[in-house]
């Protein structure tokens, strides 16, 4: 992969909340110590003679090394691997009837946001494209305080009660003796846990589906998972589920691509986001809510809204758009922003409240607690990225890493010494006043009976998908269980699958070479077509990339014709040739951006062979085209470029294969439509077999 270019050092001030930070650019002034003493030399320690021992009195050496020794902070215990961007949220004003939250109620109201995407299991240096759930954590810096929506790219979770979180994470993390495998669920302890805790089944199906290997953050849905309570200005309450719908559509990698990318470009998602933003293609999502009545039952259409292993099908409660999120600025400093950002489910604003979901309740403790270790004390809200954009007037004082210089002599209430301030804010002052709700019951360690059905929605998810998506689930289960050593665990998981869907179970069992057990899968499962991500009409292709294979004799003007058409659709064109440098020297001179050695198919959404290109049987080129073809991407050629496709075994005229005499409008339109479908799945059965 090409290196992502260095950040633009000439930009006047860092973007987003760090604007007010102590910014220290490498701006050409003298090198100093941390105390501001100018230093003549940072390459030689102070020694007794040029061959002598280093002197203890070298305060600069000790300061430099000591600082370095402490440059790392503990990585997040989960979601350690992440990438983030700044942006803006603009309200449609449509949520005004259900919430008094100012940033949602007012039409056109803009709010700064910082969003961090992550994988769950891997360490900070692990690969982006592993099979896993993705974090989708949004910090809204609203005028009424900070609201964090700490969600995932899947609408359900593995466990129903937060007390099990350490268990599922211990099971998913690498085995404790030799710390492997990294960032993988394909190992014994994960499958041991989920086969014993059948409440995990629904989430496991999502993880094994294409949702576990998103194409990019740009094409990933987000979910608040839990049910929240919204409070309107008049005090009326409703129960909601939050959704992020990507404008670019919901798309995934295929498994072989995910595996290749993990080796070829472990930063695949991070790079895609950073490059896209830098190229002026922001990531865009619509924010939406499903609204359910708050009638005191915490259920809707028979679904327990406090059970985080259940979703509400969109067919029963449509997702109503309430605003738009645009991510358009990369961080200025990874550590200061992406690493130090601290999300907390308890960062709520008036108009948004929590429910009794026992998973959410445990999170309300965990997120504050974890920052104390990770960020070294209770003052993490003073870090630039965590500073609210609303005025802060708390009475919290001192502590590790205190950087505020508080004035006033009476940090307590009531006081008479600081003129009685700060004063309490009641609801009419936009204070956060919890809606009084009845709470009673006996203290028990138990779940309600309505949490017991672990299979109906699991079956709903599986049966709502297209057959190619179901194939992928079967292959993912077969792959993951194929990596499990203990026979008893495989058999137990097959018994779980038998209670979801007999066909799913028997296909996985066949792949593992084991007998398929008989279960009691749910009957009367109502499917939810909205759960499938396969599209039948072309969607947007902004931010996508086309690789054009060419040589010095190719139709270079034709490449420019295609480029102009592609750029008008927000798509970029990149030339690939046998060696680097330039092709031609006239007005249509082309820069070779990748060679057959440096390119890999995962980088591009479509490949085209330019007319006039001499047929080549270079094995790297053949592999490139075959891979793209096998992964059901759009491929094409104009003129005699077709010969190169044929040499790679790409069948002309098949689904998603676009060939024309010239790269004119009809070629471009057909190619862009094929890209808009994301994959030519009709080709899958013929080319993929059981490989992906
Ligand atoms: Fe988290 N989770 N979680 N989680 N989670 C953390 O907080 C935790 C859960 C999610 O980009 C930690 O600051 C518990 C559900 C995201 O910084 C920690 C439970 C969902 C991120 C923690 C859950 C999430 C985290 C680790 C069960 C989706 C990354 C570092 C009760 C709705 C945020 C940190 C970022 C991070 C605990 C369950 C999403 C340890 C105890 C459900 C996106 O506090």
UniProtKB/TrEMBL annotation:
Alphabetically ordered keywords of this record: Heme, Hydrogen peroxide, Iron, Metal-binding, Oxidoreductase, Peroxidase
Residue stretches spanning the membrane: none
Recorded GO CC terms: cytosol
Active site: 79, 152
SMART domains: Catalase (SM01060)
Pfam families: Catalase, Catalase-rel, Catalase_C
EC assignment: 1.11.1.6
Domain Catalase core as annotated: residue spans: 32-421
Cofactor(s) the record lists: heme
Alphabetized CDD domains for the sequence: GATase1_catalase
GO molecular function: catalase activity; heme binding; metal ion binding
UniProt xrefs under PROSITE patterns: CATALASE_1, CATALASE_2, CATALASE_3
Enzyme class: oxidoreductase
Swiss-Prot/TrEMBL GO biological process terms: hydrogen peroxide catabolic process; response to oxidative stress
Family: Belongs to the catalase family. HPII subfamily.
Function: Decomposes hydrogen peroxide into water and oxygen; serves to protect cells from the toxic effects of hydrogen peroxide.
Protein name from the UniProt record: Catalase
Organism of derivation: Rhodococcoides kyotonense
């Amino acid at each position: 992969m090409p290196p992502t270019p260095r950040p633009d050092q000439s930009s006047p001030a860092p973007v987003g909340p760090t604007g007010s930070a102590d910014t220290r650019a490498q701006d050409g002034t003298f090198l100093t110590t941390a105390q501001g003493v100018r230093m003549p030399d940072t390459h030689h320690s102070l020694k007794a003679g040029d061959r002598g021992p280093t002197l203890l009195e070298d305060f600069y050496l000790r300061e430099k090394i000591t600082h370095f020794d402490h440059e790392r902070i503990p990585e997040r215990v989960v979601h350690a691997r992440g990438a983030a961007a700044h942006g803006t949220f603009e309200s449609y004003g449509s949520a005004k009837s259900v919430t008094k939250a100012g940033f949602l109620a007012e039409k056109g109201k803009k709010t700064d946001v910082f969003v961090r995407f992550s994988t769950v299991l891997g360490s900070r240096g692990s690969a982006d494209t592993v099979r896993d759930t993705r974090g989708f954590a949004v910090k809204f810096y609203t005028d009424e305080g900070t609201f964090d929506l700490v969600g995932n790219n899947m609408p359900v979770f593995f466990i129903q009660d937060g007390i099990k979180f350490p268990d599922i994470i211990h099971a998913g993390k690498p085995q404790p003796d030799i710390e492997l495998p990294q960032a993988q669920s394909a190992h014994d302890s994960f499958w041991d846990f989920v086969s014993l805790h059948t409440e995990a089944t629904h989430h496991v199906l999502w993880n094994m589906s294409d949702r576990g290997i998103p194409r990019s953050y740009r094409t990933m849905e987000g979910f608040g998972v839990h049910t929240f309570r919204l409070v309107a200005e008049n005090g009326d309450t409703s129960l909601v589920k939050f959704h992020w719908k990507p404008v670019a559509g919901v798309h995934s990698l295929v498994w072989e691509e995910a595996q290749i990318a993990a080796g070829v470009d472990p930063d695949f998602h991070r790079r895609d986001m950073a490059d896209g933003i830098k190229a002026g293609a922001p990531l865009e999502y619509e924010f939406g809510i499903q609204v359910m009545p708050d009638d005191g039952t915490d259920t809707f259409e028979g679904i327990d809204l406090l059970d985080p292993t259940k979703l509400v099908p969109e067919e029963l409660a449509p997702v109503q758009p309430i605003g738009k999120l645009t991510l358009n600025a990369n961080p200025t400093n990874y550590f200061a922003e992406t690493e130090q950002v601290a999300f907390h489910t308890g960062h709520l604003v008036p108009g948004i409240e929590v429910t009794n979901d026992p998973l959410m309740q445990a999170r309300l403790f965990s997120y504050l607690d974890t920052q104390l270790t990770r960020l070294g004390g209770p003052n993490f809200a003073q870090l630039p990225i965590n500073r609210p954009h609303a005025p802060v007037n708390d009475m919290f004082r001192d502590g590790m890493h205190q950087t505020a210089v508080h004035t006033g002599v009476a940090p307590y209430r009531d006081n008479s010494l600081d003129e009685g301030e700060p004063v309490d804010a009641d609801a009419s002052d936009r204070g956060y006043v919890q809606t009084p709700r009845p709470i009673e019951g006996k203290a028990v360690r138990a779940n309600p009976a309505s949490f017991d059905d672990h299979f109906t929605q699991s079956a709903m998810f599986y049966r709502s998908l297209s057959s190619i998506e179901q194939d992928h689930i079967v292959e993912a289960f077969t792959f993951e269980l194929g990596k499990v050593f203990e026979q008893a665990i495989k058999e137990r998981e097959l018994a779980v699958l038998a209670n979801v869907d007999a066909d799913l179970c028997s296909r996985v069992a066949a792949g593992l070479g084991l007998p398929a057990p008989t279960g009691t899968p749910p009957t009367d499962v109502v499917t939810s077509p909205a759960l499938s991500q396969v599209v039948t009409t072309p969607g947007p292709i902004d931010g996508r990339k086309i690789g054009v294979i060419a040589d010095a004799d190719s139709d270079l003007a034709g490449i420019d014709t295609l480029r102009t058409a592609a750029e008008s659709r927000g798509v970029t064109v990149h030339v690939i040739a046998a060696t680097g440098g330039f092709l031609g020297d006239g007005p249509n001179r082309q820069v070779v951006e990748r060679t057959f050695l440096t390119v890999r198919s995962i980088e591009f959404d479509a490949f085209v062979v330019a007319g006039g290109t001499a047929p080549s049987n270079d094995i790297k080129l053949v592999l490139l085209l075959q891979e793209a073809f096998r992964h059901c991407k759009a491929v094409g050629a104009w003129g005699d470029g077709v010969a190169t496709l044929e040499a790679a075994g790409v069948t002309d005229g098949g689904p998603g294969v676009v060939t024309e005499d010239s790269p004119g409008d009809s070629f471009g339109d057909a190619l862009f439509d094929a890209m808009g479908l994301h994959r030519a799945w009709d080709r899958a059965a013929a080319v993929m077999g059981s490989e992906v």
